[in-house]
Amino acid sequence: MAGSNLPEFCLDYRKYTVEMISKPTSEIMSKVRKQMDEIAAVPDDKVSYDSVIGRLADIETELDTFTSCTARLPAAAATEKAVRDAASEAEKALEKFSIELSMRKDIFDKLVTFSKQTELSSLHPQTKRYVEKRILTGKRNGLHLDQETRDKLQGLRTRMSELTIEYMKNCNEDDTWVPFTDAELAGVPDTFLQGLEKTDDGRRKVTVLAPHFIVLKKCSVPDTRRKLAHARAAKCMKANTPLIEEFVQYFHQFANLLGYATNAHYKTEIKMSKTPETVTTFLSDLKEKLQPLWAEERRLFLEYKEEECRQAGVPFDGQIHLWDVSYYSAMAEERKYAVNHEALRDYFPVDRVTRGMFDIYERLLGLRFSRVQGAEVWHDDVTLYRVEEADGGQLTGYFFLDLYPRDGKYDHFCVDSLRTGRQRENGYELPVCVMLANFPKPTADKPALFSHEEVETFFHEFGHAMHCICSRAHYTLFAGTSVEGDFVEAPSQMLENWVWEPEPLALMSGHYRDGAPIPAELLATLVRSRQANSGIFNLRQVALATFDQIIFSQPRSDTAAIFGQVYREVTGIETMPDTNFAASFGHMAGGYDANYYGYLWSEVYSVDMFEARFKKEGILSPEVGRDYRKCILEPGSTIDALDMLKKFLGRGPSPEAFLRSKGLAV
Q: For tag attachment on the chain, is the N or C end more exposed, with fewer CB atoms within 10 Å?
C-alpha cells in the first residue's frame, strides 16, 4: 500500500477486482492442503512443537488472514457486484475448505499424540491452552467418532455453511425501498427528506436500512410507519425463510450426532452460561422484572396515542402496534425528558465525534491514532488509521473505518479482524481490523450528523476494534474478540457508558456550524433520559434472545409463527401478517445461533465493570483505563472471561449494577 507504512500484507487495498479473488483462493487451498498432508505424515516419534503445533498455528494465521481479506471483506464491502459475487463464492469455497481441515482426523491424532508425549504443564501457558482447546474442538467436531459419523457431520457442516453464506448475501444485496409523498412523511425532519432519492413521479424512496429508521421514530402518519415497518419485517422473507429453517434442522442434527440434546446445549457448553437451562432462567427472570417498567411506558404511549387520535378526529383503538413503538418511544423521550434528538444531531458531526472518541480511547488505553494519508482503499469513503503507543510511539496496529451505506454493502454494523495480532519469534505481528457501519451520509449542505444513539453505536463498535488492536496473544485462536461468545460484547458495552457522561460527551460534540457546545440543559436532559423506554427496549432483546433459544432447541421450526408467539408473550405486541423478522435477523446466520442472549448476559458484566472501577475511580482515569486494557482487552481468550473479570474487579461479578441500570430495585 503506497505511502501507508502498512507492513507487507496478503492483499493490497486498492480497488478490488475479480482477479484478486478467484485464483489466489484456489492457490492457498492447494498450498495449505499440502502443508497439512506434511504434518499428518510426521511419524509419531517425531511429533513435536516445531513439527506439528507451531506449523498448525502458522497455517491457521495465514488462512484466517487470507479469508478475511480476500473473501469476507470484499463480499461485504466491495463496490462492484461482480466482485462481491466472486468473493461470496470464494467465501463458500474457503468455508468448505475450513470444514475439510477441521474434520481431518489425521491432524487431530497428531495433536492427541503430542499431548500424550509431552508434559503439558511444562509448556508456555498459552501453548498448553492451545493444545487443549484444539483437542476439545476436535472432539466437538466428532473426530473421536467413527468414519461414517464423521462423514455425516462434515456433510452437515458444509451445507450449513452454504446456507449461511447465501442467507447473508441475500441480506446484503437486498435493496427494498418504499415510495412516499412528502405529505405521507409528515413529521420527518426536512433535512432528512432532502437527502432521499426520488422516484420518477416525485415520491421519496425510504429504504429499510438503519439510517432511514428515523421515519419510524418521527413520522406522524401511522399508515406510513405501518408500511415501512412491514417492509422491514418482510425483508428477504421469501428468499431467506426456507434457508434459515433448513439450517435450523441441520444444526439440530449436527448436535444430535455429537450426543447433545439440542444445538443450544452444544453451543452453551463452551460459553460462560454452560447450559441452555441457565439461559432460560436468566431470560425468564429478566422478562418478569421488566414488566412493570413496560406497563408504565405502555400507559404513557397509549395516552399520547389517544391524544393524537382525538386531535386528528380518528378512532382510538386502544393498542400499541409494532409500528407505534419507535414513534411513541421517541415522543416519550421528548416530552418526559425534554430530549430533542434532532436538535442534538446538529452537535454530533462525524469529524467531531470521531476525534472526540479517539481522544477518549487514547486517554484511557494509552494509545495514539493518526490517519494514513493516500492509503489505497476499496471506496473513497474508507479511511485508514495507524495506532501507536502514546508512550514511546511503538506501532500497535491499524484499523479501517467504512462508515456509510452503499448498494450491496453489509447492511448492519460490525468489526472484522483482517489480521489478528500474534506473537512471533521475531516480534509481534500487528493486528489490522475494519469497522463496517451504515451511518447517515453527508448532504450537500451538511456533514454527516449522528443521532446520540448512533454515537453510542459508534462507540460500541469501536470498542470491538480496540479489542482487536490491544490483544496480545501467541496464537490467532486466542486473539482479540475470540473470548466466550456470551462475553464478547461486554468490553464494548462497558465503553458505551462514556456517551452518557457529561465530560466525555463534551469531548465528542460541538455544533457542526461553529463548534458550540451542547447547551447545558439539553445535555442534562439527555443524561437523565438514559433509562427512558428501558422496559420495552430490553424486553425486545429478551424476545429476540428467547426466540433464538427456542428455534435452536428444536429439530425444526416455523420461524415466523414462533417469532410472533414469542414477541406477543414477552411484549404483548402482535407482529405483522406476512412478515418474518428471522429472515433478515443476521445474527441467526452470523455465529450468534443460540447465543443472542449474550448481549444481555454480557451487559451484566459491562455495567459491573463500569460502576465498580471507572465510576468510582474516575471516568477518564488513565490508571483504570490501563488496568482495563491489561486485564480485559490484552488477554483475548488466553484466559477464561470469569478470571479476567475477577482480576479487574478484585472480586467476583455481581448483577446488582445491571439491574439498577435498568431502573429496577435491587
A: C
- On the question of pLDDT at 1 being above 50, the answer is no
Find all residues with CB under 8 Å of 318, minimum gap 6, and list them. Answer: 302, 306
Q: Maximum CA pair distance of the chain?
A: 87
Provide DSSP, 165-195: HHHHHHHHH---EEEE-TGGGTTS-HHHHTT
Q: Record the cell numbers describing residue 616, joined without a space.
A: 468510582
C-alpha cell at 381: 469513503
Q: Which of 91, 297, 461, 484 is catalytic?
A: 461
- Give me the pLDDT at residue 267, please: 96
pLDDT tens figures, 506-564:
999 999 999 999 999 888 889 889 999 999 999 999 999 999 999 999 999 999 999 99
For 36, the grid coordinates are: 497439512
Are residues 215 and 181 in contact, defined by beta-carbon separation less than 8 angstroms? no
Which amino acid, residue 97?
F
pTM for the model stands at: 0.88
**CATH architecture, domain defined by 350-533+598-661:** Orthogonal Bundle (1.10)
377 contacts: CB under 8 Å, gap ≥ 6 = 13, 383, 384, 400
Location of each CATH 1.10.1370.40 domain in the chain: 350-533+598-661
DSSP track, 599-657: HHHHHHHHHHHIIIIIHHH-TT-HHHHHHHIIIIITTTTSS-HHHHHHHHHSS---SHH
Q: Are 403 and 367 in contact (CB under 8 A)?
A: no
For CATH 1.20.1050.40, the residue range(s) in the chain are 18-102+104-140
Annotation: CATH topology of 18-102+104-140? Glutathione S-transferase Yfyf (Class Pi); Chain A, domain 2 (1.20.1050)
